[in-house]
């Protein structure tokens, strides 16, 4: 009876040790799989960010909103004007639509890390947006004009933004 008890106790200890070992191995496998998944996700986010950056750069270039373009235009006339290519005269805006456009542009400015809704004034009349105030660089002027142009209902953007 005593031998049976010792054998049973020894079996429990060996079984517990084996179970602990298997769980450790399973945990390590799960950690490796999680690390691989995280690495894939990180790469996907980096790729998406690079795509967005290239897309914005292409739009800035197409609309001549690069820093050099902004500097030259500010030297010539002191303001930046850009129009959307499609249907310039087709849309008739009302006060409610203009208010919604202004609010949307202000919200975009507020979440952009390079721009400040507090230092940029936005006024909209019949789908024509005027940006005024100060920004930190010519690149920021281009970014602000692009944000405004990409807003639904905007037909034209005029910027008198100044670099402080």
Structure description:
The structure is a single chain. The chain has 164 residues and is an alpha/beta fold. It has 2 domains: 1-62; 66-163, no CATH class. Helices cover 62% and strands 15% of the residues. The protein has 4 helices and 5 strands; from the N terminus they run H-H-E-H-E-E-H-E-E. Strands 1, 2, 3, 4 and 5 form a 5-stranded mixed β-sheet that branches. A hairpin with a 2-residue loop joins strand 2 and strand 3. Helix 2 (67-77) packs across helix 4 (138-149). The radius of gyration is 30 Å and the shape is rod-shaped.
Order of helices and strands: HHEHEEHEE
* Number of individual domains: 2
Number of strands: 5
Given the C-alpha coordinates, what overall shape results?
Answer: rod-shaped
What average pLDDT do the residues reach?
Answer: 82
Q: Helical content, roughly?
A: 55-70%
Quickly give the structural class: alpha/beta
Question: Taking Cα atoms only, what radius of gyration do you get, to the nearest Å?
Answer: 30 Å
Beta-strand residue percentage: 5-15%
Q: Which residue ranges are poorly predicted, with pLDDT under 50 across at least 5 consecutive positions?
A: 87-93
Descriptive tags:
164 residues; alpha/beta; five-stranded mixed beta sheet
Summed up:
The protein has 164 residues and is α/β, with parallel strands linked by helices. The protein has 2 domains: 1-62; 66-163, no CATH class.
């Amino acid at each position: 009876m005593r031998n049976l008890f010792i054998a049973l106790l020894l079996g429990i200890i060996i079984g517990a040790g084996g179970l602990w070992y298997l769980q450790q191995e399973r945990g390590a496998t799960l950690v490796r799989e999680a690390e691989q998944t995280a690495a894939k996700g990180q790469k996907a986010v980096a790729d998406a960010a690079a795509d967005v950056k290239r897309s914005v750069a292409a739009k800035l270039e197409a609309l001549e909103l690069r820093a050099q373009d902004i500097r030259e235009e500010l030297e010539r006339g002191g303001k930046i004007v850009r129009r959307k290519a499609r249907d310039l005269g087709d849309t008739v805006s009302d006060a409610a639509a203009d208010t919604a456009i202004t609010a949307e542009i202000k919200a975009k400015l507020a979440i952009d890390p390079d721009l400040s809704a507090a230092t940029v004034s936005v006024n909209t009349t019949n789908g024509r947006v005027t940006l005024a105030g100060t920004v930190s660089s010519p690149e920021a002027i281009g970014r602000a004009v692009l944000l405004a142009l990409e807003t639904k209902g905007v037909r034209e953007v005029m910027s008198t933004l100044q670099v402080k």
